[in-house]
Recover the amino acids of this structure.
């Protein structure tokens, strides 16, 4: 019997399905409210799921994020304000459709495409994760070291237009990961004499700070209340969607593939997947001049892509313990805190967990259609909640969440510090995704690096002796030095280098 | 809160130097060439180098980008007060919650923020009370998080 069928009873029971339903409602609400992101939904869920068994806990996060990414389209279409960054690519397009009286069509299309994209990403995850895990079982510290380097490098380059800013963000995360007792000798590092820091920067309070508190700070700084949603019937959302899907099936396929691929890349998630596939859609469209005027084609591509990216991000997360986006970074951090180290061994030691995740993904994306339909019908009411009410409530939830992990006020201190750090970083154009990746991967990177150094007695050539390690290593070095070579090439050609985006 | 890259770069360099010097004090394990200090030294070095690149890029746009800017994108400095208030609320919770207890502290925080962000005293106080009640119920009663009772302790026990 295939293990996925064996895993069905793990998910198809009252406790897990009930948890998923509650998480779905939470995800739809969070995604629908502009300023609250899918990542924040995960961060706020952690303190609650922390007290659950692994399968319902992960199922809750999978469901909440899938719902939140779709729900982000609702205020995008109705108000031109994306509910989550993943909907930003086509919020203007969907809003233009609403203004033409096609709001139902825009939302119906994005709902169905979200579900299809999510299911496609899940199929890729189910097929490739176990295959990759077989390969990964043969990896040693050398391969893991380069893999972590490559993943972090990728995060630096894809998360922002400025690699320097991405690199600074990553280094801050890696530095924070060194706080606490060191892996080789057990010497306390950078603890400032505070006993609470001996175990390192507590991960869950840190990411609640970076994704919830920073978001609150940014919103109270620039928040104007969003306008009231237009009075338009939103009940016949599936009318005409079949014809759109038939006409633009290529877009669905394209968006799903691009989204999954971008999701697999560490550091890039649904938001970047949506931007890329929207641009690709326009590039290959027969009528690119219609883009931006309320044309559904781009919504098909990008709507599929952001949900596909969500599933794709779990491939490297489960197989190598290298998160594909900020959401899986949080999940991996939580798994570590719970003592379950992600990586290929988890496929052997707790396959029920892996297949439980797969089943949860299928159910969540299938349930997206009916639950998303309800959300569309209720959207106008949810969007009437004044945003000024939201921030104090989210702040209190964050405080309690940061406290609850260790029942320690120090968690709130870490949350505050990381919140201010992330706020200042984002205000100045530094992405926070590399920081959270650095914080999660830092111990693994250092552990593998130190073991490899001691094993090879400092001989850097040993890092390239095994074939896969050599390929990964050369690839990493190529990515590092390519920009320098390109700059040199441009300089040599005498072409002026363009201004750096801030 | 935007800063010129040169300011951020200088701050990073200063931080990297402190981190570097501190890492130099980490002890070596006898008989091993690589110890607790190696990885932090590499990170600190890379941070310092990035800081220098930031200083260079900031210095180029010295005249265009101000050293520090405390307004939002539209230059309305009044919004900055909201940020300070949220941070103050968190500090207040950290300092007061053990003695005062979760319920009074949380109520004060939520009520003050609501009053500042939306006004309307009656409904704000009501929303604050309801929020604190629900969150206390979920975390303290259901998830068994020992939120401090503080001044309310005599009433409970």
């Amino acid at each position: 019997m295939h293990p996925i069928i064996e895993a069905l009873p793990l998910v198809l029971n009252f406790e897990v399905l009930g948890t998923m339903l509650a998480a779905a409602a939470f995800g739809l609400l969070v995604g629908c409210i502009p300023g609250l992101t899918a990542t924040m939904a995960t961060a706020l869920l952690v303190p609650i799921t922390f007290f659950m068994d692994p399968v319902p806990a992960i199922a809750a996060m999978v469901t909440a994020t899938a719902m939140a990414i779709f729900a982000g389209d609702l205020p995008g279409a109705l108000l031109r304000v994306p509910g989550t960054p993943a909907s930003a690519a086509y919020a203007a397009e969907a809003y233009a459709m609403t203004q033409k009286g096609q709001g139902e069509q825009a939302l119906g299309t994005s709902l169905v495409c979200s579900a299809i994209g999510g299911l496609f990403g899940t199929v890729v995850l189910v097929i490739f994760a176990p295959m990759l895990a077989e390969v990964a079982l043969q990896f040693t510290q050398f391969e893991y070291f380069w893999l972590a380097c490559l993943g972090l490098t990728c995060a630096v380059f894809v998360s922002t237009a400025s690699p320097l800013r991405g690199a600074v963000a990553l280094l801050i995360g890696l530095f924070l990961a060194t706080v606490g007792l060191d892996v080789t000798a057990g010497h306390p590092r950078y603890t400032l004499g505070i006993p609470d820091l001996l175990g390192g920067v507590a991960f869950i309070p840190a990411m609640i700070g970076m994704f919830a508190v920073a978001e609150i700070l940014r919103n109270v700084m620039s928040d104007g209340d969003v306008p009231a949603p237009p009075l338009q019937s939103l009940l016949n959302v599936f009318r005409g969607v079949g014809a759109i899907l038939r006409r633009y099936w290529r877009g669905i396929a394209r968006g799903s593939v691009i989204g999954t691929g971008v999701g697999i890349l560490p550091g890039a998630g649904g938001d970047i997947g949506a931007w890329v596939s929207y641009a690709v859609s326009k590039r290959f469209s027969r009528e690119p001049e219609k883009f931006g005027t309320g044309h559904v084609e781009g919504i098909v591509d990008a709507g599929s892509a952001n949900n596909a990216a969500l599933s794709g991000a779990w491939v490297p997360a489960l197989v190598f313990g290298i998160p594909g986006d900020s959401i899986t970074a949080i999940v991996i951090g939580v798994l570590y805190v719970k003592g379950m180290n992600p990586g290929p061994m988890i496929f052997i030691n707790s396959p029920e967990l892996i297949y439980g995740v797969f089943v949860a993904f299928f159910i969540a994306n299938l349930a997206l259609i009916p639950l998303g339909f309800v959300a569309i019908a209720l959207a106008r009411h949810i969007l009437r909640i004044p945003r000024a009410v939201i921030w104090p409530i989210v702040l209190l939830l964050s405080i309690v969440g940061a406290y609850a992990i260790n029942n320690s006020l120090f968690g709130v201190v870490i949350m505050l510090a990381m919140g201010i750090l992330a706020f200042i970083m984002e205000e100045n154009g530094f992405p926070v995704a590399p920081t959270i990746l650095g914080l999660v991967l830092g111990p693994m990177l250092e552990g593998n690096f130190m073991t490899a150094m001691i094993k090879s007695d400092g001989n850097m050539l040993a890092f390239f002796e095994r074939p896969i390690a050599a390929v990964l290593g050369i690839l990493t070095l190529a990515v590092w030095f390519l920009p320098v070579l390109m700059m040199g090439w441009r300089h040599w050609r005498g072409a002026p280098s363009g201004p750096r985006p801030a | 809160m935007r800063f010129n890259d040169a300011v951020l770069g200088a701050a990073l360099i200063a931080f990297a130097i402190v981190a570097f010097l501190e890492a130099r004090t980490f002890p070596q394990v006898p008989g091993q060439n690589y110890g607790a200090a190696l990885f932090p030294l590499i990170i600190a070095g890379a941070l310092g180098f990035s800081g220098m690149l930031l200083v260079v890029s900031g210095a180029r746009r010295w005249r265009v980008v101000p050293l520090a800017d405390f307004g939002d994108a539209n230059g309305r400095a009044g919004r900055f007060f909201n940020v300070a208030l949220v941070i103050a609320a968190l500090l207040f919770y950290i300092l007061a919650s053990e003695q005062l207890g979760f319920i009074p502290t949380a109520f004060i925080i939520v009520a003050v923020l609501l009053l500042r962000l939306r006004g309307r005293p009656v409904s704000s106080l009501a929303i604050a009370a309801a929020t604190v009640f629900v969150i206390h119920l979920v975390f303290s009663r259901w998830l068994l998080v020992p939120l401090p009772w503080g001044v309310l302790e005599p009433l409970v026990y």
